[in-house]
Write a structure and sequence with these properties.
Elements (H helix, E strand, L loop, with lengths): L1 H35 L10 E6 L9 H16 L4 E7 L10 E6 L12 E7 L3 H4 L4 E4 L13 E5 H7 L9 E4 L6 E7 L17 E6 L15 E7 L3 H10 L1
Parallel strand pairs: 4-9, 6-8
Antiparallel strand pairs: 1-10, 2-10, 3-4, 3-7, 5-8, 6-9, 7-8
């Protein structure tokens, strides 16, 4: 009798474990299904990316740094089948991020709500078009913006809603902590899932900003980023294009 009771307990335990596993698998499948249908805010179809990783000292000479990347873009854009080419320092969902504390026009910092901490994207003109990220208001960067005089900035729609509610943020100003000059907001970009498919940004950050790759695109340490990701939109076969980029 004791043996039968033990066997019965074991059977009940196995059934409970099986139900638990099936329920867990169902929740996992449901979560994966939901994530697979999330709109990340950009289109990666026909896009090839390549991480360019010179040593940070390479960009100690800013002139050499910017000339290198201008030449790279010019040669890559000349490749057969390449429709668009641009640069960004932190590609969405690749696990990299840069941050900068900033002053926001008419925002008064307090001990409870200090200066906002923003995810900083450094991009070349044409990036938003390359990734099919809509500019909801204002405009994308132009080559004139890369000079840093005057300084321009693009912010995400979520950032605009948070710091400029019920008003047009284009024309307002943001200043990166440590900079002397304010940057004028020239555009509002559609939100993108940059951190993961559930969050645009980490919970400890307050928004997302974009600055043009130029003298004003400095990181927290005061240097411009040396490592950038090349973003190509192309109709060419990927293996052939990869080889061409490596040769360049």
């Amino acid at each position: 009798a004791t043996g039968r009771r033990v066997r019965a307990i074991l059977v009940v335990g196995e059934l409970a474990l099986a139900v638990l596993l099936v329920s867990g698998a169902g929740l996992l499948i449901r979560s994966l299904w939901a994530l697979s249908h999330v709109n990340p805010g950009f289109h990666s179809e026909n896009v090839l990316t390549a991480r360019i990783t010179p040593n940070q000292n390479f960009c100690a000479d800013q002139g050499r740094c910017f000339s290198f990347y201008r030449d790279l873009l010019r040669e890559v854009r000349a490749l057969p089948g390449v429709n668009e080419a641009s640069l960004i320092n932190t590609l969405p969902l690749d696990g990299r991020l840069q941050k900068r504390s900033s002053n926001v026009e008419n925002y008064v910092a307090t001990p409870e709500k200090p200066d906002p901490l923003f995810w900083l994207n450094t991009v070349s003109p044409g990036y938003f078009n390359s990734m099919r990220i809509p500019i909801l208001s204002g405009r994308e960067f132009t080559e004139a913006d890369t000079t840093g005089n005057p300084r321009s900035i693009i912010i995400s729609a979520e950032t605009a809603r948070r710091y400029f509610p019920n008003q047009d943020a284009v024309g307002k100003h943001i200043r990166l902590i440590g900079d002397q000059d304010w940057s004028t907001i020239v555009g509002i970009a559609n939100d993108v899932r940059a951190y993961d498919l559930r969050l645009n940004i980490p919970t400890y950050m307050d928004g997302m900003i974009y600055v043009p790759f130029g003298p004003g695109a400095t990181l927290e340490d005061g240097h411009v980023p040396a490592e950038m990701t090349l973003v190509l939109r192309s109709t060419s076969a990927a293996p052939q294009l990869e080889q061409s980029i490596r040769e360049i």
